[in-house]
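Here we describe the complex-level prediction in full. Unlike the single-chain runs in Section 2.1, the two entities below were treated as one system.
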Amino acid sequence: MSIRLLALVPVAAAVSLALSAVVDAVALPLFLDTTGTILATALAGPAVGIATGIVTSAVNTLRNPTFWPFVVVQIIVALYAWVAARAGLFRSFRTAVPAGLGLGVIASVTSTPISYVVFGCTTTGGIALTTALGKALGLPPLGACFFGSFVSDFGDKAVTFALVTSVLHALPRRAAARFPWALRAIGAA
Amino acid sequence: MTGVRLHPFTLLAIAGALPALAWILPAPAGAAVTAGVALLLTLTPGALLTPAASPGFTVSGSSPGRRPGLVVLRTAVLTAAPFWLFLLLLHDVPTTLSIGLRITTMVASFVWLVAALEPARLVEAMVAAGWSASIAYLLAATLSAVPVLKARAQRIVEAQRCRGLSSRGGIAARLRALRALALPLVLSALHEVDERALALETRGLVPGIHRTPLAPPPDPVVERAARWVLLLACLSALIRRLM
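The structure predicted for the assembly as a whole is:
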């Protein structure tokens, strides 16, 4: 890994964690905690994205220990973002938002077994309440858990993909060209 | 307030072994024991709560004569409490007890770890153990970058509000506000990458170079043996559980 890509990892991980302050300001039910992972992957490929995801989870764990088991989700997000970048799906909102919705489904499918087995579906207040709603609707325990994860992940990942698309297009071409995957991700190379 | 200064790897081993045992040992008895041990740990003299050692927690509000351990215990209890509430909402009492004690073990272990582990000592220990300086840099740089970027995010929020940006209204308006707030933050962070890369090159942090730690934390034989004992205890408990 080159020095520039090594320097990108902590910056991208810190972006994921600092965006919570922005989310608080607009009071939307979003996490955006995979923004740095997706951005790093779109800029520099899967190895940098996976490293960013692992570092994000490790540092997030120091704030809230329940994040560590979900490191697997960060790795899957990085791999999915790499496929999306290779396919140039960050070229516009029209391609990025559906890709983000697809990631929402995959992320909720991945996080449901972890949430169910390790935490009994109580990872955050919002997920616990939507899981309770799923139970009240008559879903089985695992189905209710998936419902809770799906409601929180589906929109979150679409917004994250849209945000990363905005960033990639707002980057000056000269700056984007310094990262190996940036231009291909937006369909410019 | 030096107290017992365990080696960073020993702290990590304890904080990792307790949750592992909580999930491996039969519940609720096994998890009750590990939760008790983890909560007791938060009261130990090694659990010093200093701003440098605890990025997620502060001691503001604690009275001058208060033992830091009590603050750590309170943090652990307050962090674990919502899980019990949600577990009761979703499960019956025996399941709540089993999962709740396991989560309490994990929360208390990590809250204790955060209070007792100094990132700088961890970096020194990793470098002394022959780990790549790059890995140590990734952890230390992220820990130091998060508060900087959070403060910058707050300044951007205030600046955009001064320019008339409204973060209220319907979902579409809030999403537009989110873009106006997040974009400057992410772009400014990306522009720092080159500066950081230059600084790393200047300091000789290139891949494949082994650095010499300035003050490596002492790693007594007793602690090294204790770490192996913890690992073997987890493995034997797992094998017994599976058989």
